[in-house]
Structure formats: structure tokens, C-alpha cells
Write a structure and sequence with these properties.
The complex is a heterodimer.
Chain A: H1 20-47, H2 51-56, H3 69-77, H4 80-111, H5 117-127, H6 136-145, H7 152-176, H8 180-188, H9 193-204, H10 206-222, H11 225-230, H12 239-250, H13 254-287
Chain B: H1 2-8, H2 10-39, E1 42-43, E2 52-53, H3 57-65, H4 67-98, H5 105-113, H6 120-130, H7 137-144, H8 161-186, H9 190-198, H10 203-214, H11 216-231, H12 235-240, H13 252-262, H14 266-298
Antiparallel strand pairs in B: 1-2
Classes of the chains: A mainly alpha, B mainly alpha.
Chain lengths: ~290, ~300
């Protein structure tokens, strides 16, 4: 009876047959990953080598006598103490404040009937797409007109302006999807829109807010073009400006230059690695729905 | 009592909630956009109290007397065409791969996405060092493979500098397309894929007739975002080549900046910005209308 049975799929049920296409696919994905990560390895290795070591050893040979002093020297010569503090202050003010006023505006547009609501929303939708790189000169003129060049508000206000559209757009979509009953119940109990917003809408939208917070943190931390135009005084420079200047001045100090790159890139990378999940969900809720 | 009444007035509440964001947005984003159009009709160094109205002179000068403008225009178009074709294609391939049940996919995804969150100016600095013809990564790899003759001055050679810069941009932007495609792939109907498989469809047929049509929306979004982000390419070119050598990697956004902020010719700089703005709007306006239609359908 049994000998007539051909090797049946059931026999392999415990362990599915090896799918060679999948194996090949996996290998190519790993190869791409290696290529993608190679620059980081190269930069970190170089950052720990002395100039002589850079010139005499191969790119991927690990630094046998790591020169941690590169980091200390780069920190001092690149004036990282100043640029780091400036970046931290600007980001710490801009990101929560921007998210808060965007959320308020998104609530108003989603839940309070307004005569020009549609028009305002359209104006904001346009803003999500218009690159500010086009308008560096008039932004400079405007901030200069207020006498705010080389000040924190002078850079925070334009940052806010260009962060608002995307955040309002996303949050508006999210708030609108919150069932009417939830807000109406609160309203009937006599709560003002402020209370409804704070007590009902903010708590339920925490995951979206978290995603937007992280996206905005990285964008603000990394911003270069506008800072270049609005912050001319060295004392006011942010990290990206400091790195760019460092590269201009000390590009032949390979070890220190790469140490400066690592120090600039590290905070955002750590934030990303910790909050990865929110990143992806934030992007997804943002651009691709259904 | 009177203050009470004011606070409970819906209109006032709406104004207070909407006001801050709207004011900041209009003053610091919408106004400069209109101002750039206004400034493009004046001769102005950015600081003088007096602006001289010159009509369309700035545009005529930019189009007829500024050879760099056309180089920048051409480079921006090449850059845009390449960034519509290459990063989304790699991103789609990676997303399709990661959508399979394979080992370590979360780690792989994290690795591909990592360059996206790095400051473009830092990416530029990294790649500038990697492109170093003497000790850089590419030179060393080619040398160790016995291909010394292939080593070039990647960023110093006028014929290839633009493409070298684009290499860095690919490395940085592939992860972004990939994540959008991954999100889109979640929306592909599993049972449809299963049904096609049972009907004997091969992998290619499933991709071509089931997956790809389901990704239409995502594809549109990815391509539009690719176009827009390439039109505003600034940091990475500024950091890698500064537009050189001999303006061979000059781009519109960077050239507008250079004219205004370094040559102090705000009129010409603004005229270039307006051209770039116009190009951007030809993509943005249809896209915004398309988004609105989708929103209305979703309602």
C-alpha cells in the first residue's frame, strides 16, 4: 500500500522545501545591505586613524591603535560645544511648539465648520509641496526686515512655517477620522473646543504625534540651507553649518574630519534606531493611505 | 461673565486654535513665495533701502546673458530624470524583496533606511571623502582590484562630477522610496495573490498583473515626491562640489542662492527662483488636484 506513494508534499510539511529563488533574493539583499553600510564603516574607521595611518593603511583595515584624540580635537576645533548647543536649543523649541500649533490648527480645520476651511486647507496642501530652497533670498529679506538675523526666533519662525503644512495635513486627516460621537459627547457636556482638543483629541492621537515628532526632530536637526542664509554669525551656527565649515577648513585632517562627521550624524542615528517603528508608521500614515 | 461669553464663542475659539499656525505659515512661507515674484522685477542688492524697478530685464538677462543658468537648468533636468528613474526602481526592488518572509528583514530595512535620516550636508561630507582620488574609498577599492586606471578625480572632473554627486544622492534617497513602497505593499490583497498562484501564475505574472496595478497610487506618490525633492537638491550639491568644477554641477536652486546671497543680485536670483517655482508648480498643481480627488473619494 505504502510503496505506491510518491514522495508527497506532506513529508516535507514540517520543513518547507528550500525556495532557491528566496535564497538568491536574500543573498542579493544582504549584498546591497553590505554596500549600504560600507560608507559608515569607512567613516568610523577613518575617524580613529592618524593622518599617517590613513595614508598607509587600507580603507577597510580597522584602526589598530585607535586615535580617540581625533574626537576631542575635532570637538574643539569645530567648536562643537557652540554648534551642538545651538542645534539643541533650536530643535527643543521648534519641534514641540510646531507640533502643538499644527495640532490646534488641524483640530479647528477638521472639527469646527468654517467658511474658508476648504480654502485654507488647500493653501496648506500646497505648502507641503513647495520647496523652501526656492525662496531662500526672500526669507532672508523677511527675517532681516524683522531684525532677526542671527537670532533663535529668526530661524525658528521660518522652520515653523515650513513644518506646519505637512503636520497640519497629516493631523487633519487623522482628526477627521475620529468618530463624531466622541467629540460631540464632550461638546454636549459643555466642554469648549479647547477642552475637547486637549482632553479628547490629543490623547488619542499620541501615536501620530510621536511619529511626527521624530520626523520633525530629524528634519530640524539636519536642516542646512535655511540656517546657512539666516545664521551668519559663528556663535549662532548649528551643527550642519559647523560641519560644512570644518570640511572647508580642515579637509586634509582626515581623522578629525571623519570624527566630526560621526559626531554630527550620531544623535539623529540614535534617535532613529530607538524609535524606528514610529518612523515607518509615521511615513506610512503620511503619504500612503489606501 | 463677558470674558466667559467670548471664550465660548465658537468663532473666537476657531480663530484662536487656527490663528498661530496660520499666521506663522502665511508670514514666513506664503509671503516669501509672493515676494520672490515681486523681487524678480527689481534690481536690488538685498540691503539698500531702494529697489529699482527694471521690468522683465532680470528674466531677459537670465535667459540670454547667463550661460550658467542653462547649465544649471540642464543639470536640474538630468538630475530630476535620473532621480525619477533610479532610486524608486531600487527602492521598489528592495521593498518587493523585504515583503517576502525572509530572515532578518527588519534589520535589512533599518540598514537601507539609515542614510535617509542623516543630514544631507553630512552625506555630502562623507561622500566627498569617499571620492577622494588618493585615499578615498572608491580609489582604494579600484586599486586593490588592480584597476588603478579607472580611478578618477570623481568630483574634480567636469564630465563625471554631476553623476558622482548623484551617486551620493541615490545612496541617501533609496530608503525613502523603499519605505513608501513597503507601505503600499501592505495594501495589496493577499487573497488575490493567492488566487493567482493557485491559477498557476508565476512570480512575474503575479507582480505584473496583481501587485503592480495595486501599487498605482503609491507609484504616483513616490514619483511626484522624487521629482519635487530633486528640484530642491541643494545641500548635497553645495556640500559635494559647491556647483563646481567650473559650474559643471550647478543646479537651479543653488544658482538662485548664489546669485542672491553671494553675488548680491537679488533680482536675478529671484528670477531664477521663479523659473524653478514655475517648474515645480507644473508638477504640484496636478498632484494637489489628484490628492483632493482621492480625499473626496475617501470621504
Amino acid at each position: 500500500m505504502t510503496f505506491t506513494t510518491l514522495p508527497s508534499p506532506q513529508i516535507d510539511a514540517g520543513r518547507p522545501p528550500r525556495d532557491w529563488v528566496l535564497v538568491g533574493l536574500w543573498l542579493s539583499l544582504v549584498i546591497v545591505a553590505v554596500i549600504w553600510i560600507a560608507p559608515f564603516v569607512f567613516i568610523v574607521f577613518t575617524s580613529l586613524k592618524s593622518t599617517t595611518q590613513v595614508m598607509t593603511t587600507s580603507a577597510f583595515s580597522p584602526p589598530l591603535e585607535p586615535q580617540f584624540s581625533n574626537y576631542a580635537s575635532a570637538w574643539a576645533r569645530g567648536r562643537f560645544d557652540t554648534t551642538f548647543v545651538n542645534s539643541a536649543i533650536i530643535t527643543a523649541i521648534k519641534v514641540p511648539l510646531g507640533l502643538f500649533i499644527s495640532a490646534m490648527a488641524a483640530y479647528a480645520l477638521a472639527k469646527i465648520p468654517m467658511r474658508f476651511g476648504k480654502l485654507i486647507l488647500l493653501l496648506i496642501l500646497f505648502g507641503t509641496m513647495i520647496p523652501f530652497q526656492v525662496m531662500l533670498a526672500p526669507i532672508f529679506t523677511m527675517v532681516n526686515g524683522f531684525g532677526l538675523i542671527d537670532t533663535y526666533p529668526g530661524v525658528i519662525l521660518p522652520y515653523l512655517a515650513f513644518g506646519i503644512p505637512y503636520q497640519v495635513f497629516i493631523l487633519h486627516g487623522f482628526f477627521r477620522a475620529i468618530p463624531h460621537e466622541l467629540s460631540e459627547a464632550a461638546r454636549i457636556d459643555g466642554a469648549s473646543h479647547f477642552t475637547t482638543f486637549r482632553r479628547v483629541f490629543l490623547p488619542v492621537s499620541l501615536p501620530v504625534l510621536a511619529a511626527l515628532f521624530i520626523l520633525d526632530f530629524v528634519a530640524t536637526w539636519n536642516e542646512f540651507a535655511m540656517a546657512l542664509v539666516l545664521l551668519q554669525d559663528r556663535e549662532m551656527w548649528t551643527l550642519p553649518l559647523g560641519l560644512s565649515a570644518f570640511q572647508g577648513q580642515f579637509s586634509r585632517d582626515y581623522g578629525q574630519l571623519n570624527a566630526a562627521i560621526v559626531m554630527t550624524v550620531l544623535p539623529a542615528s540614535i534617535v532613529y534606531l530607538i524609535f524606528q517603528r514610529y518612523f515607518v508608521s509615521g511615513l506610512m500614515s503620511g503619504s500612503v493611505k489606501g | 461673565m463677558a470674558t466667559r461669553a467670548i471664550w465660548s464663542n465658537t468663532r473666537i475659539q476657531a480663530a484662536l486654535l487656527l490663528g498661530p499656525a496660520l499666521v506663522v505659515y502665511v508670514v514666513f512661507a506664503v509671503f516669501p513665495m509672493l515676494d520672490v515674484i515681486w523681487l524678480s522685477f527689481f534690481k536690488w542688492n538685498g540691503l539698500d533701502p531702494v529697489k529699482v524697478y527694471v521690468g522683465t530685464t532680470n528674466y531677459v538677462d537670465v535667459f540670454t546673458k547667463d550661460p550658467v543658468f542653462w547649465v544649471a537648468f540642464r543639470n536640474t533636468m538630468i538630475w530630476t530624470a535620473l532621480s525619477v528613474a533610479i532610486p524608486p526602481m531600487i527602492g521598489l526592488a528592495l521593498a518587493l524583496g523585504l515583503n517576502q518572509p525572509i530572515f532578518g528583514r527588519n534589520t535589512l530595512r533599518a540598514i537601507y533606511y539609515l542614510p535617509v535620516i542623516i543630514a544631507p550636508i553630512a552625506v555630502a561630507t562623507m561622500w566627498r571623502w569617499m571620492y577622494d582620488p588618493f585615499f578615498g574609498l572608491f580609489g582604494q577599492i579600484l586599486t586593490s582590484m588592480g584597476l588603478q586606471s579607472w580611478v578618477k578625480d570623481w568630483l574634480g572632473n567636469r564630465d563625471i562630477a554631476l553623476y558622482s554627486a548623484f551617486g551620493a544622492y541615490v545612496w541617501q534617497s533609496v530608503g525613502f522610496s523603499m519605505v513608501l513602497f513597503l507601505a503600499g505593499l501592505q495594501g495589496v490583497n493577499r487573497s488575490l495573490v493567492e488566487a493567482a498562484r493557485i491559477d498557476g501564475a508565476g512570480r512575474w505574472a503575479i507582480f505584473r498583473y496583481v501587485t503592480l496595478p495595486a501599487l498605482r497610487t503609491t507609484l504616483t506618490i513616490v514619483l511626484v515626491l522624487a521629482i519635487i525633492s530633486s528640484l530642491k537638491a541643494f545641500d548635497i550639491v553645495y556640500g559635494l562640489t559647491g556647483g563646481g568644477p567650473a559650474q559643471s554641477t550647478q543646479m537651479l536652486a543653488l544658482w538662485a542662492f548664489t546669485q542672491s546671497m553671494q553675488i548680491f543680485d537679488f533680482g536675478r536670483g529671484s528670477a531664477i527662483s521663479v523659473v524653478l517655482l514655475g517648474v515645480t508648480l507644473t508638477v504640484v498643481i496636478p498632484y494637489v488636484r489628484w490628492t483632493q480627488k482621492r480625499e473626496e473619494v475617501a470621504e
